[in-house]
Amino acid sequence: MKQQKADRRSQRTYHLVSSAFAELLVEKPYDEILVQDILDRADIGRTTFYAHYFDKEDVLDSMIEQQLSMFTHQIAHAPARQRVMPSLELFEHIYQSPHQHLRALMRGRAGESLWEALQTALCRAIEPALSTLCAERRSPPIPLPVVSQYLAGTFLTLLKWWVEASMPYPPEQMESIFQQLALPGVWAMLKEK
User: Fold this and answer.
1) Terminus-to-terminus CA distance in the chain, angstroms?
2) Which long-range contacts (CB under 8 A, 24 or more apart) does 108-111 make?
3) Per-residue pLDDT tens for 39-60?
4) Of the residues 27, 68, 176, 179, which has the fewest C-beta atoms closer than 10 A?
């Protein structure tokens, strides 16, 4: 993305383009969206668009970066409890934020980049937490990077289903479901001697 400007007009343009792009992603596949579609939906001129973005891929990257930033902020600022990952806080964050953009980004080719970035961010947070929890052990029976990938993938699959199903259960219940399904094996592995 081009250098973001902080003035109100630029911020308004970023918001208009992101909202227009998210709406278009709900209506049709990423590959069918043209820059002209974004311009028409955002009601901005071509010059304004290109002053802020290089192309539609740049818009997608910007939206993914924004979602990833919010997600990693939530991970970093979760209350410190002895656990592997702040799954409740992540479910709550998604539940409380306008999920139109996230739902739009989850679809098709656009979603692939988002899920890869979220998987990487979660693994980076999970592995140190696992290391701390099994610090007194010399080496766990399953390598921690494998466990991190498993937990991140499980959480994201559950999160994706939840968002696509229009969040039929509250965050607290989703946290409980995740804990019951994903963590018993991890806790057993950490207790093995």
Assistant:
1) 50
2) 108/29, 108/30, 108/31, 109/29, 109/30, 109/31, 110/25, 110/30, 110/60
3) 999 999 999 999 999 999 999 9
4) 27
